[in-house]
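Input (structure):
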């Protein structure tokens, strides 16, 4: 597979399934004719000069209800399709038509490579007119073809097609500075052949955060990289579990998370209510779904599980136990000393009683005196 590969880093994947965007916008700073940045956005763009437009798939010369194009083609096959470019501004505009390899961002949104990065995969399979000129408020239909090379690898290949504008001005020092704005939609091509889905969990690690309140549980953060090891794209799903607590990999209010072949997505999932039991163990179960092209039935993969542990020494609880032991020891020691003092007093009283008894006996019936003689 020769398409672009992106790695993700950082936070937990937002969890409800992400609403799927019908298109994307790329906006980049242009300096000396090169696009230096790109950011995904929504399905309509506004150039700095106030021109707005939208791009969507089309059929028979009119926009249709598709959000993007899905193709299922064999090596060497060609398919024709259309894009509708709507000029929403009040002036005639000439748009440049671009195609490039596609990828998913760390947030799970689809985008395509910026102009300064050459495509090596499905972006090179798309042929379209270089430009289209559209009257104010009108829609222009752009025909394009997707030609799969005869040596293309089986599986999913992602690309995008977009209409773009560049507005150029003068920056500091007289340099040519501008902004390229592109809006388009994805073109997903599944090349027929040996389709092999696969997923793996890499580098799973667990971090335990202790609560110093001895009567409150701590939390556990599970981090891992989920890798699409197959040749078809996957929709992520799965669960993290520890001590009866669980959380989804993809939050219920987040976007749908897709992985292209070879993609790696970092996840970080916190779990609450985990008690320190010397060792804290967590299980990460990934249960992805294979995306079927053109609305076909999705296929669930066998779940893949991984486990990891972290030290979870119950220091607050041990300190409580130690404190209780010290208090108990002090109480017991105090009681022991009290008993010893009582016993000593009793012995002393007995001894004094014996001594007093002995002295009294000698006085009353003891030794004779002088008169008795």
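Output (sequence):
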């Amino acid at each position: 597979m020769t398409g672009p590969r992106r790695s993700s880093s950082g936070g937990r994947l937002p969890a409800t399934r992400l609403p799927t965007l019908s298109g994307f916008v790329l906006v980049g700073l242009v300096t000396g004719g090169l696009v230096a940045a790109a950011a995904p956005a929504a399905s309509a763009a506004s150039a700095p000069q106030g021109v707005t437009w939208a791009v969507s798939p089309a059929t028979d010369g009119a926009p249709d209800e598709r959000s993007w194009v899905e193709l299922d083609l064999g090596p060497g096959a060609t398919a024709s399709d259309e894009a509708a470019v709507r000029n929403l501004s009040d002036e005639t505009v000439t748009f440049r038509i671009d195609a490039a390899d596609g990828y998913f961002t760390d947030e799970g949104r689809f985008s395509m490579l910026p102009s300064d990065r050459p495509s090596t995969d499905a972006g090179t399979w798309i042929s379209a007119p270089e430009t289209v000129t559209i009257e104010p408020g009108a829609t222009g239909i752009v025909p394009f073809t997707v030609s799969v090379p005869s040596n293309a690898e089986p599986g999913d290949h992602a690309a995008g097609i977009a209409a773009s504008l560049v507005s150029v001005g003068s920056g500091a020092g007289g340099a040519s500075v501008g902004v390229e704005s592109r809006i388009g939609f994805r073109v997903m091509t599944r090349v027929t052949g040996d389709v092999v889905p696969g997923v793996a969990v890499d580098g799973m690690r667990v971090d335990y955060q202790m609560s110093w309140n001895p009567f409150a549980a701590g939390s556990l953060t599970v981090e891992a990289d989920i890798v699409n090891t197959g040749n078809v794209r996957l929709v992520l799903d799965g669960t993290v579990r520890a001590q009866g607590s669980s959380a989804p990999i993809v939050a219920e209010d987040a976007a749908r998370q897709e992985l292209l072949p070879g993609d790696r997505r970092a996840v970080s999932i916190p779990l609450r209510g985990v008690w320190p039991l010397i060792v804290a163990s967590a299980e990460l179960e990934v249960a992805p779904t294979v995306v079927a092209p053109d609305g076909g039935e999705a296929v669930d993969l066998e779940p893949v599980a991984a486990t990891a542990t972290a030290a979870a020494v119950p220091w607050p609880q041990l300190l409580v136990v130690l404190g209780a032991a010290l208090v108990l020891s002090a109480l017991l020691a105090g009681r022991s000393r009290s008993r010893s003092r009582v016993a000593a007093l009793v012995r002393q009283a007995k001894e004094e009683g014996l001594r007093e008894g002995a002295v009294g006996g000698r006085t009353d019936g003891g030794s004779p005196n002088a008169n008795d003689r």
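Notes: The longest strand covers residues 155-170. Residues 1-22, 27-43 have pLDDT under 50 and may be disordered.
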